[in-house]
């Protein structure tokens, strides 16, 4: 039980860090890129089964395999290619994951 709690706490902290990054200064794509780099440090076994489909879908949105420019990672290339609206929607989905993990607002 303690290990499960520790995993839950780590997931909550990681999502919270990503959200804090999203509400900081800068344009939405830069903030989303930073938040995605935080979020994607999670291992698949840290995600509860009920949140796994949403996490996997979000991960696919943030890293869709676009060819990146020199010095640019796949996350940055994917987010650079997004419309601002799509970046805002991805940011909302990160918040939704956190809310779902916590069982509501």
Q: What order do the SSEs take from the amino end to the carboxyl end, as H and E?
A: HHHHH
Helix fraction bin: 55-70%
Structural class: mainly alpha
Overall pLDDT level: 89
Q: Count of helical segments? A: 5
Counted beta strands = 0
Description of the structure:
The protein has five helices and no strands. The protein has helices at residues 2-22, 28-39, 52-62, 74-81, 84-102. The chain has one domain. It is mostly helical. The protein is globular and about 40 Å long. Helices cover 68% and strands 0% of the residues.
Fold blueprint:
Blueprint: H1 2-22, H2 28-39, H3 52-62, H4 74-81, H5 84-102
Helix pairs in contact: 1-2, 1-5, 2-4, 2-5, 3-5
List the main descriptive attributes of the protein structure presented here.
about 100 residues, mainly alpha, globular
Question: What's this model, at a glance?
Answer:
The protein has 105 residues and is mainly α. It contains 5 helices and no strands.
């Amino acid at each position: 039980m303690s290990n499960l709690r520790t995993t839950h706490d780590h997931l909550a902290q990681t999502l919270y860090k990503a959200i804090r990054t999203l509400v900081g200064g800068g344009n939405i794509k830069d903030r989303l890129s930073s938040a995605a780099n935080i979020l994607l440090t999670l291992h698949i076994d840290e995600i509860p089964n009920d949140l796994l489909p949403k996490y996997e879908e979000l991960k696919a949105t943030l890293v869709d395999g676009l060819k990146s420019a020199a010095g640019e990672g796949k996350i940055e290339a994917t987010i650079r290619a997004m419309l601002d609206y799509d970046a805002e929607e991805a940011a909302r989905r990160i918040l939704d994951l956190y809310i779902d993990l916590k069982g509501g607002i």
